[in-house]
Write a structure and sequence with these properties.
Elements lengths: L11 H4 L2 E6 L6 E4 L1 H6 L9 H4 L5 H11 L1 E10 L2 E11 L5 E7 L1 H36 L4 H10 L5 E13 L2 H7 L2 H21 L3 E6 L2 E6 L8 H22 L6 E15 L5 E5 L1 H12 L4 E4 L1 H4 L8 E9 L3 E8 L2
Parallel strand pairs: 9-11
Antiparallel strand pairs: 1-2, 1-5, 3-4, 4-5, 6-8, 6-9, 7-8, 9-10, 11-13, 12-13
Helix pairs in contact: 8-9
Length: 340
């Protein structure tokens, strides 16, 4: 078969950055290859076929694509000196029935793409790490302030003190905790306390209460703020009964016994962020102090309720009047015990 190719201008083939070859369509023999093509795809002595130079080529697939589309493309890598080149190779049908093969060096482009992909993956990884860190910080902040307060701080950068006219406070403390802390293994004691407080958090959330803070072995929760709740007294009453029931079940299954005292009081409250370097959301008002006083006069595993709170409980709850107590800052007060 005549494989004559018109001569190119002197130095033209050497100056080209593209490898060129002309191939017979019937037996795939290479009739012409420029120096660039020969350098990238070295000829095999005694074998003039394109597949000898380009073993990546699937002749059957190439023939199918050439017949249907007039073009076939593939990628190849070649070691040329110290470098490994990434080459794009295309075959197309020429008007005289032969095939024209072009090869382009895409090494720099692919290196740039790989670098871009690497930077993109790194950016995505950093973004995921940032999102995880933001989520971790949010979880930590939710341990010291209600979600609504955190949202206000996020939106406006500050939190305004708010007054709530109707809210109920739960104050819980453990009996003989100081003695337990001295005689018990500190790590085991703190682990148990963490388990109990975690259970209390779940109970508070279940009954529409917000844990405000823990201080040593004391636990304070509130209902009616920062989200207004019409049944704030009932919410706290149900939560306190469930907390006591949890401890009773726990004590039956464990050697170490945890007994609590609980005080409940209702009234107006003010909630606000306090502190500059260490944020703490706290609540203020007579109901906080009254709940603390009631907790102190309660017997182990007893729930003491103020008179104002009792009047807001419906018939679902059983409360019994107890002795009139002299409470610091409140004088003589009729107190009630929440039975169930």
């Amino acid at each position: 078969m005549d494989t004559f190719v018109p001569p190119a201008p002197a130095g033209f083939a050497e100056a080209m950055a593209t490898g060129l070859a002309v191939v017979a369509a019937d037996d795939w023999t290479v009739g012409y290859a420029n120096p660039v093509f020969d350098r990238w795809f070295r000829p095999t002595p005694g074998d003039l076929r394109l597949t000898a130079r380009l073993p990546e080529l699937d002749r059957a697939l190439a023939r199918q694509r050439l017949d249907s589309r007039g073009r076939f493309e593939l990628e190849a890598e070649r070691k040329v000196g110290p470098r490994t080149l990434s080459l794009d190779v295309s075959l197309r049908s020429a008007a005289d029935g032969r095939l024209v093969v072009e090869a382009h060096d895409e090494t720099r482009r692919r290196q740039a793409e790989l670098m871009l992909d690497s930077h993109s993956r790194l950016a995505e990884k950093n973004l995921r790490a940032l999102e995880q860190e933001k989520a971790r910080v949010e979880r930590l902040l939710l341990n010291v302030m209600p979600r609504a307060v955190l949202q206000e701080m996020r939106d406006f950068g500050t939190v305004s003190p708010q007054r709530f006219d109707a809210a109920t406070v739960l104050m819980l403390d453990f009996v003989d905790f100081s003695e337990m802390a001295i005689v018990r293994d500190p790590a085991a004691l703190v682990a148990e306390l963490n388990d109990i407080f975690s259970a209390f958090d779940r109970i508070s959330e279940m009954f529409g209460c917000e844990r405000i803070k823990t201080n040593g072995d004391s636990y304070m929760a509130v209902s009616g703020m920062p989200e207004v709740a019409a049944d704030h007294v009932a919410n706290v009453a149900r939560a306190s009964l469930r907390m006591r029931g949890y401890l009773e079940r726990r004590n039956r299954a464990n050697t170490n016994k945890w007994r609590c005292r609980i005080g409940i009081a209702s009234g107006p409250l003010v909630g606000s962020i306090v502190g500059v370097n260490k944020y703490v959301y706290d609540i203020f008002g007579p109901a906080v102090n009254l709940a603390a006083r009631l907790e102190r006069v309660a017997a182990p595993m007893q729930i003491m309720v103020s008179g104002d709170a009792v009047t807001q409980l419906d018939a679902d709850f059983t409360c019994e009047p107890r002795r009139i107590c002299e409470l610091k800052g409140f004088g003589a007060q009729q107190v009630y015990e929440l039975m169930g």
